[in-house]
Every structure is written in C-alpha cells, then in structure tokens.
C-alpha cells in the first residue's frame, strides 16, 4: 500500500495552532488534504499527531472528517511514523508535514513514480524546489531499519535524517526540478508565512479555482513582489539546522 503520513501538532514553537488556523472558514490542514486528494497514487492519508491533550482539537477535526489517524510520541517522530505505518499496513510511505497546504500533487505523484520505477529505498525533493513543496518517499523496510538503528536526537525527531547520515546504506535519489525555485517559500512556520499563504489561497479561490499549479503560484508571487517579500528573509530548514547544532545521542 502506498500512503501519505502527515505529521502535525498544535504546539509549534513559532506559530502555535497553525494547522487549524482558518482561511476562508477552512483550517490550513483542510487545504493540504484537498491537494493530496488529487494524487491518484496515494491509497491512504494518515494523520500522525501526538498523545498530548493540546492535540485533541486536531483529532476532533480529523474524526469529524472521518479520516484515519495515529497518536504517538511528540519528540520521537520517527517512532510515531513507524507505528502509524505499521498500524495501517503502509508499505511505501510518503512523508508530508501539515504546514505545507500548497503541496503539489503532480510533484508527489512524480516522486512516487520515480521511487517505484527505480526501486529506490528513499527519494526526496531537492533544495531546488520551493520550500513548502517538500516531500519524501521511502519503504517500510527502510523505515524499520532506521527506527531500529537511529540513535541521535535529530534522527528521532526529523524521521529521515538517518538516511542522509548514512547514504552508503540505502539506494537514494533526489528528484530533479526543471528550474531552481529555492527562492520561493510556501510553508507556514511564522505569522508572515500564514499571511502569504492566505493571500495566495484567497486569490485563487476568488478566481473560482479549487486546483491550481505551482507555476500559477510562482507567477502570482512574481507579479506581486510585495507579497513575495513577506517571508523572503526566513532561513530555509531552520528547525533541522538548529536540531543538528544541538544534537546528542538519546
């Protein structure tokens, strides 16, 4: 089974509760699920959150939508992923974070196809993609090995860091991009990110579009430099960089 596991929690340090913040009466995570619904390769989408009571509102929302979910460790996200995949029998896992409501379903499907056709252990979108289009695909077999072997705090917290630390162990690949789009940022980590994503969604909803492409988003931002500049100062992957700096064996 090919499935997406979406990690989410309400206690984000920079923007708490962001996944349930509303845009036009809909929570951010609802847009993510809608985008993923356009991925024909995905057979199941599972929300993986924590057992903390702060995440109860997120679970209430997911239950209302009658969507599958798993609750596990807050900090050992690797264990959360492993147990979620085990529970739902997912043999090929796409990792998605809930703060990426503009995820590109075409890129997701292309990533899955590359992973399957080349019989890889792990494939990821590279740094030439806009931040917020990030996704990874890996096998349950590889995940189980990582879950068993990972010892560093960063490897437990960031799920796939072990792959990058031990490329000699796995058959890995990076999905090439046609253009370098690294200057764009569609993810939601801070308030200015939310304002930018909200502006994009409001604009395309105003045009009556339930689905729009990454190219359309880029064209909109290029035509509105004042919007593009809102979050242009934010460092990419700031969380993982901080985690690596403070790393230790657990």
Explain what the structure shows:
The chain has 250 residues and is α/β, with parallel strands linked by helices. 40% of the residues lie in helices and 16% in strands. It contains 11 helices and 9 strands. Strands 5-4-1-6-8-7-9 form a 7-stranded mixed beta sheet. Strand 4, helix 2 (56-64) and strand 5 form a beta-alpha-beta unit. Helix 3 runs antiparallel to helix 5 (140-149). It is globular and about 45 Å long. The model has no long low-confidence stretch (mean pLDDT 94).
The CATH class is identified as Alpha Beta
CATH third-tier fold name: Spore Coat Polysaccharide Biosynthesis Protein SpsA, Chain A
Mean of all residue-level pLDDT scores? 94
Structural class: alpha/beta
CATH-derived architecture: Alpha-Beta Complex
What count of domains describes the coordinates? 1
**Largest beta-sheet details:** 7 strands, mixed
Fraction in helix: 40-55%
Name the CATH homologous superfamily.
Spore Coat Polysaccharide Biosynthesis Protein SpsA, Chain A
Low-confidence stretches: none
Say how many strands there are.
Answer: 9
**Order of helical and strand elements:** EEEHEHEHEHEEHHHEHHHH
């Amino acid at each position: 089974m090919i499935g997406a596991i979406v990690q989410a929690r309400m206690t984000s340090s920079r923007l708490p509760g962001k996944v349930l913040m509303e845009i036009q009466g809909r929570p951010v995570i609802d847009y993510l699920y809608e985008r993923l619904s356009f991925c024909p390769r995905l057979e199941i989408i599972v929300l993986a959150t924590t057992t903390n009571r702060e995440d109860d509102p997120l679970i209430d929302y997911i239950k209302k939508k009658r969507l599958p979910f798993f609750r596990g460790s807050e900090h050992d996200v690797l264990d959360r992923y492993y147990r979620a995949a085990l529970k739902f029998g997912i043999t090929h896992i796409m990792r998605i974070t809930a703060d990426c409501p503009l995820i590109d379903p075409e890129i997701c499907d292309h990533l899955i196809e590359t992973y399957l056709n080349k019989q890889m252990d792990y494939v990821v979108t590279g740094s030439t993609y806009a931040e917020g289009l990030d996704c990874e695909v890996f096998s349950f077999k590889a995940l189980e090995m990582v879950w068993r072997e990972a010892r560093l705090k960063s490897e437990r917290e960031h799920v796939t860091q072990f792959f990058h630390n031990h490329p000699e162990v796995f058959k890995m690949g990076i999905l090439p991009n046609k253009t370098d789009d690294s200057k764009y940022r569609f993810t939601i980590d801070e308030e200015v990110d939310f304002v930018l994503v909200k502006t994009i969604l409001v604009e395309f909803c105003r045009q009556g579009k339930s689905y729009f492409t990454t190219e359309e988003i880029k064209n909109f931002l290029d035509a509105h430099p004042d919007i593009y500049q809102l979050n242009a100062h934010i460092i990419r992957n700031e969380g993982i960089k901080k985690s690596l700096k403070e790393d230790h064996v657990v």
